[in-house]
Structures are given as structure tokens and as C-alpha cells.
Amino acid sequence: MESKVNGRTRTASSPTRRSGLLTLLCIAIGLSIAIPKAGVKVDGIPLTLANAGVGLLLIAALSVFLIGGRTPRNMLVPAIALMSTYFFLRLALSGANGVAVVDLAVALVVAPLLAIAVLGIVKDEAGWHRVAKWIFVAYWVVLAYAGLQLLLGSDVVAVPGFTVNLTDYQAGGSTWYLDKNNAVGSSVKLFSTYQNGNLLGVNLILLFPIAFMVARRSKLLLLLSFTIVAFLTLSRGVWLGILVTFVIMLLRRARTVRDVLARYSLMLAVLLTVPILFVVAPQVLDRFVQTDFDDWLAATGRTQSALDLVQSASTNPFTLIFGPQGIADYVGGAFEITIAAIFEAGGLIGVALITGVVLIGLQETWAGKSELSIAIFAGLVAYMITSLVEGAFWLPPTAILFWSLLGLGAAIHTAQTLDFGPTARLVSNSARLHRW
What we know:
This protein has about 425 residues and is mainly alpha-helical. Helices cover about 65% and strands about 5% of the residues. A two-stranded antiparallel ribbon has the order 1-2.
């Protein structure tokens, strides 16, 4: 079926096909949030339900776009294509191999394609509401499982192959989670279905504003649950992210006096909860008291590692521009700081390319003029600030969720500014989104 739009002939995409892709997108995102580690590992590379869902989504969506000539029209598309191509060539020509390089390739070459897929799939208000609701439900699954883990113990609630990777469980025995850097003195980080507290924490920060926006009568419960679980990750980088998230919430312009009172009442509830948490969970207080703030400001040694990385690269113009030859030499140090690892993988060119892509995505998201756009923007900004200390960008599902949200934010703006049919005139409808 063809229609004239602005003097051009456009072929309407099949509603059934689009609905199928949207369902697949929701399932892939839901699995990536709720049970990101469900599956096994082969030579250290995870083969999980979430990764399979993402792979199937990319194959289906990109095939539809290419065969049907329906590639999404947005500045983000050529920018991502250029960035992914550069990192693919850079990693391929580096001669490096191993799990670390595979992680980099997934985060910088494959996962960015999700933003393009989301742009092509989500084209109306019903679509982005549906994705947001799946995020909300999956977010609660993660928090609820974390609560069970806290009350009953990691071993009791572990379901090998589902809530914990089967290969990791078999290799580590009854204390498999200690092999995932979850020990802090005599305490253990809370990690839910993510197998590592830091990884759980940064993804909670990335997704919280969206879940909070969707919540209606459970905002207070969600806020307190997020605060408690995030604190119990015992990650000081995540604690920074909690603070950033709350600051962003308070800085957001209030529409009425009631909004102001509600917002500060929620923050007061959090302030009253934290001292109680110190009493009932002494490991949090111990972690806080034992923190060397000079060391914390230096990102636990990672800042110095990042400076060493830049200094070593600056001696050779080639490595400064394209990145060091030893792709994974700084794993555990500068590698944990997202921007430093990007420099390691692609040099100044790589940093410039990904910065440009993210800025385009943020601009598109901010221009979306909907409550969901603002929530996505807040989550992305809070995560990016947190990633200056601890980003976990190279561990699934962080990159998958980051690029999906960047694409979703851009898709909302695109849907509001382009005419995809009579059901997609959305600007006036965006006010129906409830406030977050």
C-alpha cells in the first residue's frame, strides 16, 4: 500500500510485521534486564537467552529494513554506521583476541545496531509505552529477586542456568559468586540476577528513571527498593550514581506546588531510610566508614591507570590517534572507566566518534517532549556520570540496554516529527504520560 507524504511516495510497512518486531524487541529487552545471565558459556563467551533474543531481533529487524528499503531516517543511523564500522576495522586489525576483545566488539560494533533497530520498530506512542511497561515489569523482577537473595541467601535462591550462568555455577561450586568480585571484607555484595554487584548497580541507575515514570501508585515503594538494593551492592561508584540520580530528580522543573511537595517528600523518605539501612545492614556502614575518600576520588586507582594509559599512548602518534595495540592490557584498571576503555579500543578517533553519536542521541531524546523522553535522558546522563568511575559497559547487559534506550529516545522524537500515518500524530497526546 502506497501513500503520498510531502510529495513523496512511501510504502506503508505491514502492521503485523511491525507488531511482531515490537514484541520481539520487548522480549529481548525484558530478558536482558530480568535474567541477563541465563544460559551457559563457551570458551568464556556467554551464550544466554538474552543474547539470543537480541541477536534474533537484530537479524529480523535489519533484514526487514534492508529488504524493504525502510532504513530509519535519523541522523543517528549514519553516525552509528560510521562508528561501528570504525571499531570493527580497528579491533579486527589489532590482531588481539580473547574474551575482552569480544566484549569490546559487542559493546561498540554489535550493540549500537540496536539503536537503529529500535528507531525502525518504535513508531508510535503505543509502541514506546509498551516497551516502557516491559522495562518496568523486568525492573521489579530484578528488585524482587534481590530481596529474596538478601532474605534467604544467594545459594538458596540460585537457579543454575536461569538466575546464574550454568557454567559459572558449575565452575565455582557453592561459593561461585565469590569468583565474581563480590566479596568486600567479610561481606558479600547484593547482585540479584547479574552475578556482580557493580554490574547490577549501574544498570539499576540506567533504568530507574523509566521505571519510576511508569510507576503510578508504587513510586515510594520503587524508590525505597531501588535505594536499598543499590546501596547493598556495596559499590561506591554505584553510590555516586544514586546521588546523581536524586540530584537530577530534584533539578527537574516542577509543574505545580503539589509536584514540589511530592518530590521532596520522596527524598525525605529516602533520607530517613538510609540511617535505618546503616543499622540493619552494618556492611553498608562499614563500607562507608572504611572508604578512603582520596582513593575514592581517584576511582580506586583507576584514574591513575587511565593516566598511565594516555601517557603510554602519547609517545606514539599512531597509538594516540587509533589506540594502543594491546587492547586488553588495562583490564581491571582503566578498562573499568568507560571513556578510558573506549580510548584504549579506538584512540582519539574512537572517543570522538562515540561522543558524537551519544550527543546526537541525547539531543534527539531531549527534543522528544514527552515524560518518557525525559526519563530516558535522565537515566542515560546518570549512567554516564557513574561510568567515569565504574561503567561495566563491556558486560552484558549494560551496552545492550544503553544503546536500546538511546534508540528509544530518538525514536520518540522521530515519531513526533515525521508522519508515519494517521495514527501517529502524537505531539498532543504526549501529555497523557503520567508524571515521574
